[in-house]
Amino acid sequence: MPRGQKSKLRARQKRHQAYGETQGLRGAQATATKGEAFSSSPPPFGATTQRKRGAGSRGAPKRPQRVLPTTTVSAGVSRTRSCKGANGKIEKKQSASQALLSAVRSQRDPLSNATRMLVQFLLHRYKMKKPFVKADMLKIISKKYQNRFLEILERASFSLEVVFGVDLKKVNLPKHSYILVSKMDLPHNGTVSPGKGFPKSGLLLNLLGVIFMKGNCATEEEIWKFLNKMRVYAGKRHFIFGEPKKLITEDLVKLKYLEYRQVPNSDPARYEFLWGPRAHAETSKMRVLEFLAKINHTIPSAFQSWYEEALKDEEERVQATVTLKADTSAVASGSSSVMSSSNYHP
């Protein structure tokens, strides 16, 4: 492998190591401050951290794991639907109790409301596909908490990334200009289907993570076991992900992000999921592992055996890129020589 490409891989490993040292110092504080912006969710991330087919236990994470806190979205996104009649009364009672719980949380953590409002603002800007500046964000944060803007922004950014798969990036440092970029190139600005909806890249990345950690092939039962821990159920419409069964067995399959096939020789028929070709093209095992590590407030190398597999995958990708460039250069050089010969007239 060329020296420059090896250097990039080494640099990536050093970044992970440096991040791990920082996390060691911040550890519990980071988990507390970020976690308080969300409602509690069922631990742990165990559905994805067991090797199957006798792969051993080397991959057991070195730190406690948490499932993706999908209830985060209830802190950052408001439901707009309302029911009438008896159901409406029940929903009002539930809303009242939820509001009370929210108020209690807000008293314990005064930044929660500011974080929720900022998440809503950022999602709106993401749908508009327009850059925005720091001043725009400060307008929706109470003056009382504007001196803690960076902390609020960090929480909101974390929520957007782990729930929706959307990254907040600076594009103009002097003016504090920002844009939001999806981690995956899902159609309709990440919502998959046209019309209203929320970005689903976060869910897709979690599914890819489950598949990767289950030996690059996860049964349908394993996928739903994981999703149920996220409070996402087959046949039950989710206010962010829509009808999840259709999303993962039809929409993401048609888009070639997932492969959904019958388990060989299964009777009655059972099904399993693999990465689709677009998933391989748009992301990598290392990027998915980095995503999962961020959710769990740890570093990719904490998932030891999967980290080793991801590193090997990175090396193979680099080698494939180098080979492709070499072949392309050879073809271009050959074509140039042929053209030169054809233009020569003694």
TrEMBL record:
Where are the stretches annotated Disordered? 1-74
Tell me where in this chain the MAGE domain is found: 111-310
List the Pfam families. Answer: MAGE (PF01454), MAGE_N (PF12440)
* Superkingdom classification of source: Eukaryota
Task: Name the residue ranges with Basic residues bias.
Answer: 1-17, 50-65
Q: Which residues form the signal peptide?
A: none
Checking InterPro entries in the record gives: MAGE (IPR037445), MAGE_N (IPR021072), MAGE_WH1 (IPR041898), MAGE_WH2 (IPR041899), MHD_dom (IPR002190)
Q: Which SMART domains does the entry link to?
A: MAGE, MAGE_N
For this chain's UniProt record, which GO biological process terms are given? negative regulation of transcription by RNA polymerase II
What's the protein name?
Answer: Melanoma-associated antigen B3-like
One Gene Ontology term, aspect cellular component: nucleus
